[in-house]
Design goal:
Distance between the termini: 40 Å
Keywords: Glycoprotein, Signal
Strand order of the largest sheet: 2-1-3
Number of strands: 3
Number of helices: 4
Radius of gyration: 31 Å
Protein name: PSI domain-containing protein
Order of helices and strands: HHEEEHH
Helix content: 40-55%
Largest sheet: 3 strands, antiparallel
Strand content: 5-15%
Length: 164
Amino acid sequence: MTFTRLTMSGEFRSSAFVFALIVYGVIKSTGAQAPTTSPAPTPCALRSNTSCAECLQNVTCLWCTPTKQCVDYPVRNILPPSSVCPLNDARWGLCWGKSDKTKPQITIDAKSGNKKEDAKVERQTRARKSRQKARKTEMQLRHDEIRQKYGMAKDNPYARMDDH
């Protein structure tokens, strides 16, 4: 019975990390409040020409800084297209974080962490395999000694070919 360690690919872990960070930002921005019966959220378009903080109280809204427009986040796209708002001017979740700077930095951080973890796992695997090989060799020697002691030594498999 062999046990193998299942690891996620680097790309999947990066995506999972970005997703977790976005979920954390949403929870943090909403204040993780207990669910209460509140009125339906105001549509994003009605929050235009207010402030970024006012717009982003609704987690489905996207604030475009130069136009001061509050629009529904285009959920069909991962990043908002430039037709909605230029990426460096779009704010979602937090007013102070630029979308175009945050995503590459998160990706870089996630990838560097993966290399360290992968190297550690690789070292552990090599050490485990070398210990296993040493144990196997030791066990084989013990078995050979017992066979010699009781006269059940294995014949050389090539000796049979030489006899014929």
